[in-house]
Amino acid sequence: MPDRSIAEAGAQMRAGRLTARALAEAHLDRIAAENPAIRAFVAVTPDRALACAAQADADFAAGIDRGPMQGIPFAIKDLVDMAGLPTTCGSRAAPATPAATDAAVVERLLAAGAVPLGKVATYEYALVGPSFDGPHPPPVNPWNPDHITGGSSSGSAAAVAAGLVRVAVGTDTGGSIRSPACYCGVVGLKPTHGLVSRHGIFPLSPDLDHAGPLAASVAEAALMLDAMAGFDARDPASRACAGPAAAELGQPIAGMHVGYARDWFATDPALNPAVLVAMDDAVSALSLLGARISLIALPDYAVMEAAGAIILHHRALTIHRHRLHAYGRQALQSLLAGLGLTGADLADARTAARHLRDETDAILSRFDAVVTANVLAPAPPFAAFAGNKAVWTAMRTLPFNLTGHPALALPIGFAGGLPMGMQLIGRAFSEARLCRIGHAFEAATDHAAQRPPRQTGGR
């Protein structure tokens, strides 16, 4: 039952062949059986889940339809407030006081009739990991438990990949939705900056912070994003909502113009050759679907990453400076990278960001989407992080936090039994177009249909 898509489960609930309570109970049973091995959930809320499911069932019975997410279970990254639970942020430094209210994204999902199952793991304060000095052991990759999930939406990706839930809330400041989506073989959607309110989400770097969905499919990511999105005056960056991300699902992509930023990653020494082969094959699949492909050059990646890193590290240290003594080793190492940065450095980086955003806008104005690599190799093993040290993994994600453009991550194959992925980037508020392209690709390939083996028992 937990393996039904949102559309399938919704149709059955509306036809009276399934109840939201039964669906929630099936998810809770699977979490109880399999989460000890996956370690994705750090807190499960059965009472609240069943109460919300009962309300969804009562609404269905009364003819009240709140939309596609009604009765659908979801998980919440533990950087996001959920009333009645502490927001631990994956850290021993976090206060144990339960949140008094729900974050804006949780409010909106509850208003849409969705059913909250609980909190899933994050790297400490959305910084780096996996770490072993936090309040919980890190989640494992469902495809191979000896490998990491990526971060910082580690629990969100692991929970979706393992089939514990179809959709989960994630956050993305430098790739934290897209990196774990890639490593775990699921879909991740970082929306346009300002489309989803961050009120009630602990900040890392507000210039770059985004919230968005991780999901088992493109269609489900689109449906969840539509429930999450909307203007919120409590978030200073919030902007008027775009059209529904699900509006163009199922439409053909023949005639669309897609730019392929191959040179952004093809000669990088960190690239696993299998990623290049899979990327070329994925772009060929888009061509066979009728898209017109052009090789393009994006702004220099190193410059974009450097400007983004300055903003991230300067702002993160400002937010976290007062409690550095309580952080784990990896998080502390990451935060200390901001010590040598000045206000002038931040101002220069923001100026560069504006220029790079304008340059990227000009490129994207000529295309329906741009495709490039997401992460340059499959998930590394936990052994690479021996000694609890921070390890850099090569990604191509941070620039679109810097520019604020939407980016859709989706699987494109496997290397050594581990997933690989790409990302589609579009103009601001073009989520519907990205999901249309991603959904067409997904339907024409079998990558998203593959699931890891069930895991039981603890590690």
Automatic annotation (TrEMBL):
Domain Amidase: 23-435
SUPFAM superfamilies in the record: Amidase signature (AS) enzymes
Gene3D superfamilies referenced in this protein's UniProt entry, alphabetically: Amidase signature (AS) domain
Matches recorded under Pfam families: Amidase
Entry's Gene Ontology molecular function annotations: catalytic activity
Annotated PANTHER family: AMIDASE AMID-RELATED, TRANSAMIDASE
Record-given protein name: Amidase
Organism: Fertoeibacter niger
